[in-house]
Specification:
With 590 residues, this protein is an alpha+beta fold. The chain has 3 domains: 8-201, Heat Shock Protein 90 (2-Layer Sandwich), CATH 3.30.565; 208-334, Ribosomal Protein S5, domain 2, CATH 3.30.230.10; 376-577, formyl-coa transferase, domain 3, CATH 3.30.1540. The chain is 33% helix and 23% strand. The model is unreliable at 341-394 (pLDDT under 50). The protein binds adenosine-5'-diphosphate and magnesium ion (MG).
Length: 590
């Protein structure tokens, strides 16, 4: 076949494929246009999960009648003039492609009126072919109706998922925009059912409450950090909400990032976030976040993806560490030491009658700062300039005076503000973990050779797993080699663990590998460290000498995150002086 130019219809359908993949992508482009037009209110109506109809109405500035045809043309935009402006983009759109793309794969109508016009105008586009513009009565703003999406591209229709999935994608999208633009009223309905509605009063926590429930909203920690104060050339601000370590999900779907008002996925920001939560979350758990990064437009390239879902930062390392530190600070400031509230006397102030059915062992753990009405307390300013060492130190544990050990499991200590009960196993786990990670960072984990090498036999499936992890293990000061079929020889283990049973450690590690099918490569090392520490930390049931108890307390005080074990459980419980006084009736009882 000779070379020919593609028919414009074919070309635009091909181009449309990049922008319009599914109903949710249409919703995204239309909502972004409304936001660019300065809308205060954006209403999305869908039918049959968007296949039959997607209609987005706004009260934005509108499109003048004589520009309607242009609006629907490819590469026609009111938002960008010079190529140099590509690197300082302030609007969500700039490619001038969305309306043309949508119009080429659906039956679309644009109805719009600008403020000064007496009446509105409407343009219909069907499969890329435009009608004449007609005058119609319409309120100020724009209504874009997209019917029968992909009616002329059956191949695309086939790729759509079930209605449930497509609807969920739309829900998810509108939800994220509602969170990102709390000053805009959003409404999403399918037929007569309203599935989402926000007030547009700027209250993000209220939106979170509407989306995830009041309980979740109350617990969310506010992040508010900027690095303009450091005098660096990159001005950045991070705002939004993150979940405390006690509130997690089993997947990453509720991790949301916006950069300059644009929803981005797959960014290095996700890794920065996970690093901030590092060792505070249990393996396989993920936080719930809505974070909004504002950065000078010239510091970020938004033109790397047709749907604009990816961005690139000029100075990625800087952005990465800013986000990581801001989140970590907010998090550590609110990693509470659990407070013990005896429920022995009920919660009402007047009743001092012990509940007869209750035994003294009925304790309930409440988290400081997470009670009712705690929402104001939860907000934190993590302005980098204002975080001095004094503030950071309150994240640590206070200096503790050893009192003794109870139940061969807990260490009792006194701090300036009351009594601390420390779980010896969890605390030791934390101590070992941090020591090991420090040694690992410096790439020198001292290894201790065993007096005589030890051979361990494993079932085939486990042996296969272990073989795959040998290299990582050897980084950690283990010297383990394959020793015939399904057998391994241990010749050395980390010096930190001298004295513990090497074969038990190895078997335990393999069992844990089995539970977790696909550890991410970059998480493997810290996971291994966490597991080794868990297995080798002193167990509950072991009596410790005074010196051992004291050493453990000292080591814990020196940890970066002393309040939780590497798997996210608390290492200590705090009985405050205040609480003791209330419980003994020395102070107004609660
Ligand atoms: P882009 O958003 O990249 O400019 P689009 O194809 O999405 O390209 O839109 C083309 C143009 O149509 C926009 O630049 C804008 O001028 C106009 N437009 C689209 N939607 C709206 C709207 N809801 N309100 C006002 N103007 C709009
Ligand atoms: Mg657009």
């Amino acid at each position: 076949m000779p070379i020919r130019l593609l028919a414009s219809e074919v070309a635009s359908q091909i181009a449309a494929g990049e922008v319009v993949e599914r109903p949710a992508s249409v919703v995204k482009e239309l909502v972004e246009n409304s936001l660019d037009a300065g809308a205060q209110s954006v209403s999305v109506l869908i039918e049959e999960a968007g296949r039959k109809l997607i209609e987005v109405s706004d009260d934005g500035r509108g499109i003048p009648a004589d520009e309607l045809t242009l609006a629907a043309a490819r590469h026609a935009t009111s938002k960008l003039v010079l190529s140099s402006e590509l690197f300082s983009i302030l609007t969500l759109g700039f490619r001038g492609e969305a309306l043309a793309s949508i119009g080429s794969v659906s039956r679309m109508s644009l109805t719009s009126r600008v403020k000064d016009a007496k009446e509105g105008a409407r343009l219909k586009v069907e499969g890329g072919k435009e009608d004449k513009v007609e005058k119609v009565g319409a309120p100020v703003g724009t209504v874009i109706r997209v019917e029968d999406l992909f009616y002329n591209v059956p191949a695309r229709l086939k790729f759509l998922k079930t209605d449930v999935t497509e609807r969920r994608a739309i829900d998810n999208l509108v939800t994220k925009y509602a969170l990102a633009y709390p000053n805009v009223r959003f409404k999403l309905s399918e037929g007569k059912n309203i599935s989402l509605q926000t007030a547009g009063d700027g209250d993000r926590r209220a939106i979170i409450a509407a989306l995830y429930g009041v309980d979740v909203a109350k617990q969310m920690l506010e992040v508010l950090a900027d690095d303009s104060s450091t005098g660096s050339e990159t001005d950045m601000q991070l705002t939004g909400f993150i979940s405390p370590v006690s509130l997690t999900r089993s997947n990453r779907k509720d991790i949301t990032f916006f950069v300059n008002g644009r929803w981005v996925q797959d960014t290095p920001l996700n890794a920065a976030l996970m690093q901030a939560y590092h060792t505070l979350l249990m393996v396989g758990r993920f936080p719930l976040t809505a974070l909004f990064l504002e950065i000078k437009p010239e510091e970020v390239d938004v033109n790397v993806h047709p749907a604009k879902a990816e961005v690139r930062f000029k100075n990625q390392d800087k952005v990465f560490s800013f986000v990581q530190r801001a989140v970590r600070r907010a998090l550590l400031a609110y990693t509470p030491v659990p407070q013990v509230m005896p429920t022995l006397w009920g919660s009402r102030a007047s009743s001092f009658e012990p509940r007869s059915t209750n035994t003294g062992s009925d304790w309930e753990i409440a988290h400081e700062g997470q009670g009712t009405g705690g929402s104001e307390q939860l907000s934190v300013r993590t302005d980098q300039s204002s975080v001095n060492s004094g503030q950071l130190s309150n994240i640590k544990v206070p200096l503790l005076r050893l009192i003794g050990q109870i139940g061969a499991a807990y260490i009792v200590a006194e701090g300036p503000d009351g009594l601390y009960l420390i779980d010896q196993h969890a605390a030791h786990e934390r101590v070992l973990f941090e020591k090991l990670m420090i040694q690992q960072e410096q790439r020198k984990i001292p290894s201790q050779a065993l007096l005589s090498p030890l051979v361990v036999n494993l079932p085939p499936a486990q042996a296969k797993l272990l073989t795959g992890q040998l290299e990582a293990l050897n980084h950690f000061g283990f010297e383990v080699e394959e020793f015939g079929t399904n057998a391994f020889q241990i010749r050395a283990m980390p010096a930190l663990f001298t004295g513990s049973d090497p074969s038990a450690a190895l078997r335990a590690l393999v069992e844990d590998f089995e539970e977790d099918e696909t550890p991410l490569q970059d998480e493997i090392e810290s996971k291994i460290a966490g597991r080794v520490c868990k297995r080798l930390a002193v167990k509950a049931g072991k009596t410790l000498t005074q010196d051992e108890q004291r050493a453990l307390l000292n080591d814990l005080e020196n940890c970066d995150s002393p309040r939780t074990c590497p798997h996210g459980r608390p290492t200590m419980i705090h009985l405050s002086v205040d609480m003791l006084e209330k419980q003994f009736g020395r102070k107004g009882a609660r």
